[in-house]
Amino acid sequence: MSRKLLIFIVAFTLALVAFVVWWFTRPAPQVNVQPVNTTTEVTPAELQPWQTTTSPAVPATPEQVAQTSAKNFALRFVEIYGSYSSDAPYQNLKAVDYMFTSNFKQIVEAQTAQTEPAGGFYGVTTKALTAQVSNQTESSATVLISTQRQELFSRTGEPQLRYQDIKVTLVKQGQSWLVESAEWQ
């Protein structure tokens, strides 16, 4: 290789490296953006029917917080309580027994001891849809929950879908809600 060609290749490589270094170390272009004030006051009379206004959030009252707490507790409980699989009999109830009062725990244990599992596979999945709180006091609440239940029997092979309500009575012990009763309607 000739000496001139070697010098040209080295010079070209150095120039290429210098360009790459310059390209990645150069400062980003500065864009001057001027803030634009587009806030306009609109009176309700000027709104079209499809437009809405937003109002500032109002803090929840202690009663609303207690009602939401009871409702959420009951919704979570019902989805587990209402689901069952013969592959793991009554494991759903064992999973939520910490949510029971001692009285309700005794009732549930007595019912499960008397119930014989059906032959073949049986499973039910419960989904809580809506909840309405009624008769709420500081220490108790009654929640009516609408559910969707899907049952599967190995004999039929076809899942059956039904809607069923359940009334859950809660009592407050300390800061926690506990289930006093649960009655399918």
UniProtKB/TrEMBL annotation:
Keyword Transmembrane on entry: yes
Domain of life, source organism: Bacteria
UniProt keywords, alphabetically: Membrane, Transmembrane, Transmembrane helix
Segments traversing the membrane: 5-24
The name this protein goes by in its record: NTF2-like N-terminal transpeptidase domain-containing protein
Organism, scientific name: Candidatus Veblenbacteria bacterium RIFOXYC2_FULL_42_11
